[in-house]
C-alpha cells in the first residue's frame, strides 16, 4: 500500500512539473491520471514482491535503454536525411522478418515502439503464428544484419526493462 501511495505521489508530481502548475485542479487531474496508469500497468509496476528492488533495477536499466533509443533515432534521422537530400541512393527498402524470440507481448510492443521511433524503420505487423515481427526498413539489403541489430538491441538494452 505504501508503494502505491509513493508511486501515485511521484507520478502526480511529474505531471505537475510537466504542466508547470500546482493548481489544485491540475493536481487532482494528475492524481486521477496517475491512479489510472498505476491501475492499468499494475502487473508490470508491482510485479516484484515488496522489499525487492525490481522496479528500481528496471528504472536504472532504463537509462541506457533511453540512450540507445536516442542513438537509433539520431542514426535513423541521418540515414533518412541522406536519402531524402539525394546524397545517398535509396538502395533496397523492404520488409524484414525479425524473430520475436523470448520477448513477452509487452516486450514486443515496446520493441515495436522503439523501432518506429527511429526514422527509416517501422513495425508493419506481428505474425504471432510464425513468431516474427515484420519490420519495414529503408535498407533491407542485408536482412541478417537487421535481425542481428534488433536482437542485439533487445539483449543489451531492452530485456532488463521490458522483457
Q: Brief description of this entry?
A:
The protein is mainly alpha-helical and 163 residues long. The chain is 61% helix and 12% strand.
Write a structural description.
With 163 residues, the protein is mainly alpha-helical. It contains six helices and three strands, in the order H-H-H-H-E-H-E-E-H. The chain has a three-stranded antiparallel sheet with strand order 1-3-2, with helices on one face. The longest helix has 31 residues, at 54-84. The radius of gyration is 19 Å and the shape is globular. It starts with a helix and ends in a 5-residue tail after the last helix.
Range of strand content: 5-15%
Total helices: the number is: 6
Order of helices and strands: HHHHEHEEH
From the alpha-carbon coordinates, what is the Rg to the nearest angstrom?
19 Å
**What coarse outline follows from CA principal-axis ratios?**
globular
Tell me about the largest β-sheet: 3 strands, antiparallel
Instruction: Give, in spatial order, the strands making up the sheet with the most strands.
Output: 1-3-2
Count of beta strands: 3
Structural class: mainly alpha
Task: State the helicity in percent bands.
Answer: 55-70%
Distance between the termini: 26 Å
- Mean pLDDT comes to 90
Could you name the ranges where pLDDT drops below 50 across 5 or more consecutive residues? none
